[in-house]
Design goal:
Blueprint: H1 3-16, E1 25-27, H2 40-55, E2 68-72, E3 77-84, H3 90-102, H4 105-110, E4 114-122, E5 129-137, E6 140-145, H5 153-158, H6 163-170
Parallel strand pairs: 3-4
Antiparallel strand pairs: 1-2, 2-3, 4-5, 5-6
Length: about 170
């Protein structure tokens, strides 16, 4: 199975099982296209990142673009996915997503966006896959979880709430 097919399957599952808005999911988005990325600040960050990615050795030929980009401007949520065909390349997916997230550290704080990065490898329809999640919090890229699991947008957003929210929330 090709990496592009795996990315498409991953996006279909995000929509069908995790209720992501299909219109907001962009596969291999180009920062040059306002149709792909209407948010000009995100497009500019991806442009800068693409220059950096083009300079580094890579097995793919995506021109420095992420595999998947999902933006919800209403909730200020941004999901970025780096995908690899094989689980043996999972560390490369982790390195790629961490590198890409570093370009969004300032943006996440200034624009108050909640940015999640996923390193994905393998076949999403079987147990033969790995997912490693990262968030940007207080300008730091933090490894959040290695449960090989996807979540809803709301669940990802809950990762950004502080502990006080959970204490208050539990009382209701």
């Amino acid at each position: 199975m090709s990496e592009q097919n795996e990315v498409k399957k991953l996006c279909e599952i995000l929509v069908s099982k995790y209720y992501f808005n299909k219109a907001r999911i962009k596969i291999n988005p180009s920062w040059k296209s306002s149709k792909d990325i209407p948010n000009k600040k995100i497009a500019e960050i991806l442009r800068k990142a693409s220059i950096n990615f083009k300079k580094s050795p890579s097995k793919d030929n995506k021109g420095g673009r992420p595999d998947v980009l999902y933006e919800n401007p209403e909730t200020k949520f941004l999901l970025i996915v780096e995908s690899k065909d094989s689980i043996s390349d999972h560390e490369l997916a982790i390195n790629d997503i961490q590198k890409r997230l570093n370009f969004f550290r300032e943006f996440s704080q200034v624009e108050e966006y909640k940015v999640v990065g996923l390193a994905f490898s393998g076949d999403i329809e079987t147990e033969d896959h790995e997912i490693t999640s990262f968030i940007i919090k207080e300008k730091e890229v933090i490894r959040k979880q290695d449960k090989d699991q996807l979540w809803t947008e709301g669940r990802y957003l809950s990762w950004f709430r502080n502990k006080i929210f959970f204490i208050i929330h539990r009382d209701y």
